[in-house]
From TrEMBL:
UniProt key word Signal: yes
Residue stretches of each TPR repeat: 470-503, 504-537
Residues in PPIase FKBP-type domain copies: 87-176, 204-293, 322-408
Source species of the chain: Hemiselmis andersenii
SUPFAM superfamilies: FKBP-like, TPR-like
Source lineage: Eukaryota, Cryptophyceae, Cryptomonadales, Hemiselmidaceae, Hemiselmis
InterPro entries: FKBP4/5/8-like, PPIase_dom_sf, PPIase_FKBP_dom, TPR-like_helical_dom_sf, TPR_rpt
PANTHER family listed in its UniProt record: PEPTIDYLPROLYL ISOMERASE
Keywords: Isomerase, Repeat, Rotamase, Signal, TPR repeat
EC number from the UniProt entry: 5.2.1.8
Record-given protein name: peptidylprolyl isomerase
Residues in coiled coil: none
Reactions mediated catalytically: [protein]-peptidylproline (omega=180) = [protein]-peptidylproline (omega=0)
Signal peptide: 1-22
Length: 582
């Protein structure tokens, strides 16, 4: 009884201080006095009426440690369990009003964005630090906050007068959590295991996970049997889409986390898991990511699939094109699992052609120390003809199990080795070009150029670098020319001529491009330059004849246009003035 009356006295004092916004007289309702029975005192709400129409209600219960300055009323209970503590980053939605007249002065809902702050560190008013610390996830509460725990005698701006008692309706969304989706539908809270490395799984990978899924009430709706292998983004995945998104965006090898998904990212309007998850339910999944298999669709058609088994704890260089690799290899038929080669140890230079084209392309996704499976369709392996050594039947899909034990990456090679490798790739591109496969040819030419792109060299090597770069540009121009990509072809010719101004093939192809674009003067100029380099060039003479013929046609057309134009615009001659009589 005494405590209740003491709290009432404090409320009277605080509201007396805040009367400047109402300018009215206080009276107590329903009329509590020292003689009021204790039961009646406990049951009565603390209601203060300001004569003239203003009414102030401190509903709820006082928060411990605030000396009656902050009252809390629970509007909707949360999920229960632990709540945030000092130092946590908490996210809330809120609406703030003045107790005196109920006018709204601020709302995060109006901005359609939660408000996040560090709890207990004085980043917000004292009443918020005290009140939000009492909440649990999902809880909605109303806090009535005396001015000395709000903005005090100074107020805030033109919306909160001095000595104002404030009312906030607050919803605690989360704390120490990361927003996985921009709409807040998926959040992730790291737990005790931080994990290693910096990489995250990709949406096409296989993950080894242990998980428990619960409703907001705490009821378990899904649980793995230890660690399970889950293929992400597959129809058979037991994980909600929101959980998969969180794993791919935030989780590292060995980490665990609590992932919260709204219905849109879980089981939707209909619910699921055989009725365990009701319609429109938010779910919470505690997930531990032990490891994952990274999967690469190299040619984007499923023809070359690389599965790197587990994630390395240390960095290893890739088996990129032209790198020198020691590997252990075993080849099996995909249909039967029968071994047709190995296991054997090999020393190779990636891309030199010692292995099937598809396998060498797949190796470029594998790092030193990595264990991997490379699955090839027959077109990317031994084709319709098969192979006698190793013995592979026609039209056979195959699987190679690879471990790259040692890798000398391309950037560690000597320039002489890079020149040899680049020359080989240029020759491989020429084979594809002659076979009419410009796409494969361009791929080889690009690899050749990449090997020496930033090399300068000295003396004889410098000349070789410049000459090879120029040739590669011209060969790419030929590919683009075949594909009808005139501007791309001319661009490569320009690059070749920057390196070697008297490159006859570059002059010829660029001249053809100018002719195709009807830039006849430029086309003629290139052919004249070509004749300076190769005076007996029949191709240049033929092109010059075509240019002259086209120029003649253009001149004739232009004359006709101008003649017609002048005929329309010519003014009739004026008649001579009449003679005047003398």
């Amino acid at each position: 009884m005494k405590q209740r009356m003491r709290l009432l006295s404090l409320l009277l004092l605080s509201l007396t201080i805040g009367l400047s916004s109402c300018h009215q007289t206080l009276y107590i309702s329903p009329g509590l006095t020292q003689r009021t029975p204790q039961a009646a005192v406990q049951a009565a709400p603390l209601s203060l009426r300001l004569r003239g129409g203003c009414e102030a209600k401190f509903s709820g219960e006082p928060i411990e440690g605030t000396d009656g300055a902050v009252y809390k009323e629970i509007l909707a209970p949360g999920a229960g369990g632990e709540g945030p503590v000092s130092g946590d980053d908490v996210s809330v939605h809120y609406t703030g009003t003045l107790l005196s007249d109920g006018s709204k002065f601020d709302s995060s809902h109006d901005r359609n964005a939660p408000f996040t702050f560090k709890l207990g560190k004085g980043k917000v008013i004292k009443g918020w630090d005290a009140g939000v610390a009492t909440m649990t996830r999902g809880e909605k509460a109303k806090f009535t906050i005396r001015s000395d725990f709000a903005y005090g005698p100074q107020g805030s701006g033109d919306k909160i007068p001095p000595n104002s008692t404030l009312v906030f309706e607050v919803e605690l969304l989360r704390w120490n959590e990361k927003e996985v989706t921009l709409d807040g539908g998926v959040t992730l809270k790291p737990l005790d295991k931080k994990g290693t490395g910096w990489r995250h799984p990709d949406k096409s990978d296989e993950v080894f996970v242990q998980y428990t899924g619960k409703l907001a009430s705490g009821e378990v709706v899904a649980e793995s049997e230890g660690f399970e292998l889950v293929k992400l983004s597959s129809e058979g995945s037991p994980l909600p889409t929101g959980v998969e998104k969180a794993i791919c965006k935030e989780m590292k090898k060995g980490s665990n986390a609590l992932i919260t998904c709204t219905p849109e990212y879980a089981f939707g309007d209909d619910g699921g898991l055989g009725g365990k998850v009701p319609p429109k339910a938010t779910v919470l999944y505690e997930v531990e990511l032990k490891d994952w298999n990274a999967i690469y669709d190299v040619d984007k058609t499923g023809g070359i699939l690389v599965k790197c088994l587990g994630q390395l704890d240390t960095y290893g260089p890739l088996c990129d094109d032209a790198s020198q690799v020691k590997l252990t290899m075993e080849g099996r038929l995909a249909s039967s699992g029968e071994t047709f080669v190995g296991p054997i140890d090999m020393d190779i230079t990636v891309g030199d052609g010692a292995l099937p084209e598809g396998l060498e392309r797949g190796l470029e996704k594998i790092k030193k120390g990595q264990h991997a499976l490379v699955t090839l369709t027959s077109q990317n392996a031994y084709g319709a003809q098969g192979s006698s050594d190793p013995p592979v039947p026609p039209n056979s899909d195959v699987v190679f199990e690879i471990t790259a034990t040692e890798v000398v990456p391309t950037y560690q090679l000597q320039l002489s080795d890079k020149l040899v490798a680049a020359e080989r790739r240029k020759d491989q591109g020429n084979v594809f070009f002659k076979a009419g496969d410009t796409s494969q040819a361009l791929g080889k030419y690009d690899k050749a150029f990449k090997l020496i792109q930033y090399e300068q060299g000295e003396g004889e090597e410098a000349d070789k670098v410049k000459a090879l770069k120029s040739v590669v540009h011209v060969n790419k121009a030929a590919c683009y020319d075949k594909e009808g990509r005139v501007e791309d072809s001319m661009s490569e010719c320009n690059k070749a001529l920057d390196l070697k101004p008297n490159n006859a093939k570059a002059l010829f192809r660029r001249g053809k491009g100018y002719l195709a674009l009807n830039q006849l003067d430029e086309a003629m100029s290139d052919m004249k330059e070509l004749l300076k380099v190769e005076p007996n060039s029949a191709a240049a003479a033929t092109q010059m004849a075509l240019i002259k013929s086209k120029q003649k046609q253009q001149d004739t057309k232009d004359k006709a246009v101008f003649a017609k134009m002048f005929k329309k615009t010519a003014a009739p001659a004026k008649p001579p003035p009449p003679e005047k009589p003398e």
